[in-house]
Structure prediction request, 161 residues.
Amino acid sequence: MRMAGAADAGLLRRLWALALDAALAATAFGLANLVLYKLGAGDGADLGQRVNALLTLWQRPQAGVPAALALAAAAVCGWRFLGGTPGGLLAGITVRRSRDGAYPGVLRSVCRLAVAVATGGIGLLFAAGGRRALYDRITGTRAVIEDEALVELAGLGTRRP
Prediction:
């Protein structure tokens, strides 16, 4: 079932959105850690020790769990309330329910994320050729390009005589 005026987002567009999300997350995580480190930097450490501690912070498991939970919450809230993650929206992708075209609810968004993580991203390969990813098929969602100009640019629009 295709939604009127919307084309399925292909693999390359989804990978671009993922790269944008990763860059935004790394930037936000780095800035947050820099601020937190600066707030607690009164320990007399020299500049080299501070920079080394900041650069190796991501290797500490206790720092990774809150960051992963924050990213998961951001993805779920983005899909639920905005129709996509920041990278997805910048790439022109919104996530919709296949049934009626509405944004997915919280439970459907959590399931979508869980299936995507559980399949290790392999389900994304199903999106090659403009088809739906495995996690979209399982959760009843669809990642679409809604802007008509973007649809035409991608060559996915309907042909006019």
Q: What stands out?
A: Confidence is low (pLDDT under 50) at residues 156-161.
